[in-house]
Amino acid sequence: MSKPNTFTDPYYTYQIFHKSENFKRWFEDNTISFKKYRKSWEDRPIHQNPGEFPLNLNIEITTKCNLACTFCYHRELNKEQKIHMNMDMFKKIIDEAKKYNLPAVNLNGLGEPITHPKLVEMIEYCRDAGIEDIMFHTNGTVMTEKLAKKLINSGLTQIIFSLDTTDKKIYEEMRVGANFEKVNKNVERFIEIRNALKSKMPMVRTTMVLTDKTINQVKDFKKKWEKLSDNISAQDLVYSFEDEVKYEVSTNKDTITDGMKGLNWKSGENSYYKVDRKKIIETEKKTKEFFRCAYLYQSIKIHSDGLIDPCTPRNAPSIGKVETGIKNAWKSKKIKEMRTAHENGKWYTIEECRKCDHPYIAIFKKNNKTVKI
User: Fold this and answer.
1) Res 289: pLDDT
2) How far apart are alpha carbons 280 and 129 in whole angstroms?
3) Rounded CA gap, 103 and 105, in Å?
4) How many angstroms from the chain centroid is the CA of residue 173?
5) What sign for the dihedral angle of Cα 215, 14, 178, 75?
6) Cα–Cα distance between 194 and 189 in angstroms, integer?
7) How far apart are CA 198 and CA 210, in angstroms?
8) Is the N or the C terminus of the chain less surrounded, counting Cβ atoms within 10 Å?
9) What's the pTM?
């Protein structure tokens, strides 16, 4: 029997609405292996092919952060959960990845990467291992000229500054502990330093989290940054619910009554559209085209303590440890079960996927008129 039709989005909840000429040249002039990696990024989820090893590792080098953003559950962590990844573990990760010619790393997780004292050394270690696309997201609050020069010379290929809005009041309400003028100046100065050093790298991306507060500032955000940054992007707010939403999920074996309690964090912000999870589940049971998550074929997440997850949401299951191997985790029974469920149009029978925001947002956006930037 043939498998049902599925749809997937290789770029999740992101939208790109500006690429500079510098960015386009970087892509066009890049290596054959880099272009192959970018093509594989789209092809793997389309063809349901996870390959031998991930294309990208999301390595959470730290869970420490200097802000308390209202849309992030970092503020729910206790003191013991806020740690830096040690350098020996990081090297072990990269050493294994080198064997499989890993093309990309994103040094991100719940923390602010710049707070890690070994950040530049980590980037250089990735560069020396032959990794072609090395990036991290930052809130930009503690960027200095000295650090900027080190990062520019380190082998970093992309730096993503999370700025959200052109409105000072909204920005400082969302990114608690940050100063709007200082952060914007830090980003502008970083670009000035890179250009003064006549370096094409790293590509600078400025990005927004789209909420009901920021959605109307997209045009102003683009206008402010399109002459400065190489790439401008936005991410739909991913948020969880406190209220219990019960529904039944039919599988071949039994019926599960499930609820959303247990996700003990709720965003302090609101999405610019509302998602009815129960309705989406019921629709998915009847539709002829099902959701399939691209992440399961592209990336893997490694926590600061060495635990490995198949994806980045908070409720993702552990599928291994660094000490027992990334490849073993990529081939683990759990992640294979997740892929199979998605490929068979039954993603909602996997508990962690059922409690993840991404399927609902992707399905909602596919079936409804949403804001296009």
Assistant:
1) 86
2) 44
3) 7
4) 23
5) positive
6) 9
7) 33
8) N
9) 0.91
Residues in the chain: 373
- Reference 73, options 249, 259, 312; nearest CA is 312
Note the pLDDT of residue 264.
47
Q: In a 3-state reduction of DSSP, which class is residue 108?
A: coil
DSSP state, residue 324:
G
Dihedral in degrees, nearest 10, Cα atoms 356, 248, 253, 312: 0
Which residues in the chain show pLDDT less than 70? 1-4, 13, 238-266, 314, 369-373
Strand order, beta sheet including 133-138: 14-19, 231-236, 203-210, 158-162, 133-138, 104-106, 56-59, 299-302, 307-309, 320-321
Quick check: 59 and 109 in contact, CB under 8 A?
yes
**DSSP-derived secondary structure for 258-271:** E-STT-----SS--
- What was the pLDDT predicted at 271? 80
User: Which residues, in sequence order, are bridge partners of residue 247?
Assistant: 258
DSSP string, 168-212: HHHHHHHSTT--HHHHHHHHHHHHHHHHHTT---SEEEEEEEE-T
**187/207 Cα distance (integer angstroms):** 12
CA pseudo-torsion sign 10, 14, 17, 20: negative
Q: How far apart are CA 9 and CA 262, in angstroms?
A: 27
Residue entry with tokens 């019921």 = 282
